[in-house]
Write a structure and sequence with these properties.
Blueprint lengths: L1 E4 L10 E4 L2 H17 L3 H14 L2 H17 L4
Antiparallel strand pairs: 1-2
Length: 78
């Protein structure tokens, strides 16, 4: 089990996500983002705009994803 925070994953807060794989963490982050979108949380909306801009460039989003996966893989097990 490893932990990453919302803001480590491109979000806007310190909410922690705990999972055994980066894919699980990414899905938790996505669900949290959808919740914050529904709540119209301005900080998260700004973070989402930045991610959407990044997604316009397939190479940039791939590099971002790979760097976050490496960051997850390097974390110590809890």
């Amino acid at each position: 089990m490893k932990t990453m925070k919302c803001n480590q994953l491109g979000g806007a807060c310190d909410r922690e996500f705990h999972a055994n794989s980066f894919e699980e963490i990414a899905e938790m982050s996505k669900q949290h983002g959808m919740e914050m979108f529904q709540k119209n949380d301005e900080a998260h909306l700004n973070a989402m705009r930045e991610m959407q801009a990044l997604m316009q460039n397939p190479e940039a989003i791939k590099a971002w994803y790979e760097s976050k996966k490496k960051e997850f893989d390097a974390l110590p097990e809890e």
